[in-house]
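Marked as duplicate of an earlier ticket. Keeping the data here for the record.
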Amino acid sequence: LHHIQQVEGFDRGRYGGAVGYVSASGNGCFAVSIRCAEISKDRLHARLFAGGGIVSDSEPLSELAETDAKFQAMLKAITQES
C-alpha cells in the first residue's frame, strides 16, 4: 500500500479495500471493492471509483473499456431521477 500511495499521489479512501463481514461463529465473506462511491454528507457530491484486475495477458484497451462500462453503470445509478 505504501508503494501505491507514492505512485498514485492521492488517497484511495475505501477503494480497493476489503468489504465483508465476520459472523459470531467466525465465518465470513470478503470481496475487494473495485467499484465504489463516496457520497458527501449533503448528498450533492460523489467520488466514484472503478477498476479491475490486470493480469499478464490483459489487453489495455479491453481493460479500459471494461472499467469505463463499470464507471458508467455507477454514474447512471446515482444520477437517475426518482
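See parent ticket for discussion. The chain is about 35% helix and 25% strand.
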